[in-house]
Amino acid sequence: xxxxxxxxxxxxxxxxxxxxxxxxxxxxxxxxxxxxxxxxxxxxxxxxxxxxxxxxxxxxxxxxxxxxxxxxxxxxxxxxxxxxxxxxxxxxxxxxxxxxxxxxxxxxxxxxxxxxxxxxxxxxxxxxxxxxxxxxxxxxxxxxxxxxxxxxxxxxxxxxxxxxxxxxxxxxxxxxxxxxxxxxxxxxxxxxxxxxxxxxxxxxxxxxxxxxxxxxxxxxxxxxxxxxxxxxxxxxxxxxxxxxxxxxxxxxxxxxxx
Length: 258
What we know:
Elements: H1 42-100, E1 102-146, E2 151-160, E3 163-171, E4 176-220, H2 227-246, H3 251-255
Antiparallel strand pairs: 1-4, 2-3
């Protein structure tokens, strides 16, 4: 009898609680080492040295170029602040100011003006003066006079009955006498003259008139022929002035946006 056990069955012996642990598993087999690169040749070493040198040279050149660019920018800033902007901006503003300026001065005029003309005069002249009158007046006339007193006439000849008789006679006062005057009367008299004299005549004039005067002058230049060149020059420099004003003058303006 087999007591219910299967034949040929292997029995596992009971495991002791105090049995030793199982030994560790063996390590996996080591991989094969990678193949070693071939030893560098002289050409490969020269090529590597060349590329390393070219890289270092490129870095040095780039560094020099960056430094040169920074120095050039600083130089450009100095040129703008010290030369370009004062020159261009000053010329632009000065041309605008010159176009808006005026010539204000006083001109001294000393000259002689030769005047040849004809003046037509229509006027009334008020005359209030004394006029001396001196002349000889010839007087030839027949007039009658009356004696104002008795006039004796001595040793005169009186005809009586046709006979001359010498005698003295007296012409009584009041006797009228017809006489003939033939004489020159001197006249010397001052005559007052007050009258209005109308004048209507052409007066020819030919004379030299001395002129000495100060003439104030105020000439706006924008109303002269200088307006066009001043405006053209200001317009020519305007774009460059605007460009310089918009160009930064320092690194702060470059890094700080407006």
